[in-house]
Amino acid sequence: MQKILQLKNAAIYQGDNLILNNVNVEINKGDFVYLIGKTGTGKSSFMKTLYGDLPLTEGEGNIVDYDLKNLKEKDIPFLRRKLGVVFQDFKLLTDRTINDNLMFVLKATGWKDKTEIDTRIEEVLAKVDMKTKGFKYPHELSGGEQQRVAIARALLNNPELILADEPTGNLDPQTSVEVMEVLQDINKNGNTILMATHDYALLLKYPSKTLKCDENAVYEVVQRKN
User: Fold this and answer.
1) Quick one: pLDDT at residue 124?
2) Residue 48 falls within a domain, yes or no?
3) What's the predicted TM-score (pTM) here?
4) What count of other Cβ atoms lies within 10 Å of the Cβ of residue 149?
5) In what order do the strands lie in the sheet with 32-36?
6) CA distance 59 to 69
7) What percent of the residues of the chain are helix, what percent strand, and what percent coil, each to the nearest 5?
8) Is 20 part of any domain?
9) How far apart are CA 116 and CA 110, in angstroms?
10) Starting from the edge strand earliest in sequence, which strands make up the sheet with 66-67, in order?
11) How far apart are CA 28 and CA 8, in angstroms?
């Protein structure tokens, strides 16, 4: 199995505050893993450590072939190119169309060829069923549609791992299921996904490996088979 993420005896801090201690986690290529836990138990800090927003100072951490402990400032953009990050609040640029949002990311990550850019945008929008909406602005889309675009954006550079931080947090139950279906399809195509969520209904509907943050620890939850 190809390991995409491995943390060994890692401690995660926010400033001087210890958030999570003695973290041991492995995620293999093709996995779909949930990260659950109440608000304030460290899910976001865990995610931020993985994409280089918080430094890892204790223990070992490897993600998509990067050593988190020795991650240099200049490496972070390259690390993030190999990760696709999906946020709860979409983080789309409101002053430009969907196509231009996606083009912005591609140009920022070194794409030059106009035809290749256009083709890639069309491919990722097709994957999330938003191919006809590229000319629209974010405010013209529903929340679910905006989140689909955010997922498309995360796919642009063929990431080895998608980090989805509460991707259904701002969506109603029906739309949450639709977004989940998109993530499930992407996972079936071979993308590895780590999804932080507090939506337990989704875990029941789409059971998968589950990590839980609780009392400064992260541990795997064994789901009962019915």
Assistant:
1) 95
2) no
3) 0.91
4) 25
5) 83-86, 161-165, 192-196, 32-36, 209-214, 217-221
6) 8
7) 40, 25, 35
8) no
9) 12
10) 17-28, 3-14, 58-63, 66-67
11) 15
The full length of the chain comes to: 226
Phi-psi bin for 89: left (phi > 0), alpha (psi -120 to 50), beta?
Answer: alpha
Q: What is the pLDDT of residues 198-216, one digit of tens each?
A: 888 899 999 999 999 999 9
Q: Is 104 a domain residue? A: yes
Residue 104 belongs to domain with CATH number: 3.40.50.300
Q: How far apart are the first and last CA of the chain?
A: 28
Closest CA to 192 of 219, 158, 226, 221: 158
Could you give the residue ranges of the DSSP H alpha helices within 109-189? 114-127, 143-155, 173-188
Q: pLDDT category, 108, cuts 50, 70, 90?
A: confident
For every residue of 75-99, DSSP letters joined together read GHHHHHHSEEEE-TT----TTS-HH
Structural domain boundaries, residue 182 = 32-41+73-221
Percent of the chain with pLDDT over 70: 98
**Amino acid letter, residue 52:** G
Q: What is the count of structural domains for the chain?
A: 1
Can you read off the two tokens belonging to residue 17? 């505050």
Other CB atoms closer than 10 Å to residue 114's CB: what's the count? 9
Please indicate, yes or no, if residue 103 is contained in any of the structural domains.
yes
Is 138 within 8 Å of 149 (Cβ atoms)? Answer: yes
pLDDT in tens, 65-105: 999 999 999 998 889 889 999 988 888 999 999 999 999 99
Strand ranges (DSSP E) for 64-191? 66-67, 83-86, 161-165
